[in-house]
Amino acid sequence: TARLFYTMRLTLRYRHNTPTRRLLRLEGWVVKDKGRVVTAHGAIYDDATDQRLVDAEALLMSLPPEALQNLDPEALGWKIYPLDG
Questions:
Q1: What's the Rg (C-alpha) of the chain?
Q2: How much is the pTM?
Q3: Contact at 8 Å (CB) between 43 and 57?
Q4: What is the pLDDT of residue 3?
């Protein structure tokens, strides 16, 4: 199921200059899931060359149910996409 998280810590390592006005591909995956706290890794790639530009590591905390009840994603400018599969 989809979950929303607060970002507790985000560490970025820039491996190469990250271009502007180019299509980038972002990928992320869960490394450790302890229920409310999740560790995730991710990367940003230049979509044309497949060059890995940025590595990311994040420590995330699930939003509590009461925060989700009053959440208006559209008012925040969010677009939530359904999970594939």
A1: 15
A2: 0.75
A3: no
A4: 80
